[in-house]
Amino acid sequence: MKIGIFDPYLDDLGGGEKYMMRIAECLSEQNEVYVFWDNSEDIKALKERFLFDLTRVKLTKNIFSKDFPFLRRLIESRRYDIIIVLSDGSIPFLLSKKTFIHTQQPLPYQNINIKTKLKLSRISKFFSNSKYTKSYVDKSLGVESLVLYPPIELKPKKIKKENIILHVGRFRVRNVPKIEDYKKQAVMVRVFKKMVDGGLKNWRFILALSIKKENRGAFEKLKEMTKGFPIEFQINKNNNALWDTYSKAKIYWHASGFGEDLKNHPELAEHFGISTVEAMGGGAVPVVINAGGQAEIVEDGENGFLWNTTEELIEKTYDLIKNEKFLEKISEEAIKRAHYFAGDRFCQEVSNLVLK
Question: What crossing angle do the helices spanning 185-197 and 310-321 adopt, rounded to 10°?
């Protein structure tokens, strides 16, 4: 089959891009797969960052570009048996035999007028990355989407554990309504500093961040906050290097959505949490915010901990730090839970969804 894949954020190196390119990799084993994109360097960066095998995937002109005429897009789309689109909130009108829409985050409510109904009638199926995302997409569009959890490859290394608290994520600044980082890395830095000032010794906080050029200035301000404290940064590491750190870390932190109005802005919580699952696969115990997809991953008190306030974050972290045997027990359960989301199931689920 001839399959086309489009991700409007392909130059972002985020979880959505990892998800979509893994779909391309899976389907290219037995199908002719094309990615609609005009810059080959972005594909190269994705391969280097996530270590994908995209040798069988071809790059083709981006028919979704604003500069590409609508009628030509329709004509080109007819050449494909299947087109899979990561939606940025819009629903494309295409003439491929089948069209699938993937959603990575809650979509805002849409007015289901005649035009929208016509577009929806052409969609074979919607699928989301979590139950959290699905709940908003279904309500927004009046559809029944499937949940296809992201691809997770667990590659833990036999490395001795160290007294490390780890966070992995993109560093990205938003300007509305206030200037701050999306993933709340500054919040976690302040919490760790408070713990050190309160007497915590012989522990390090490592933030493994992916950073684009436009956010370098803001990152330097974050880095300035850490002077004099055992806080380290790992910048733009590939997956292999990240697994070294996952395997060394004892505890994993995540805080996306903290302090936000998630009722009106659900997109500001973590939509799933690939890095949380990977950290668990490396044996790091997650102590993560009780919001978004994090609450789907972590079963509180069984294979990790959920928190609502920074006081709870500190308390639950200390419970682990002060009791090594307890930490080891929860670590073993975290590894088991990570395997629920991992393995070969992603490619099989993708095939079952789009090829049958």
Answer: 60
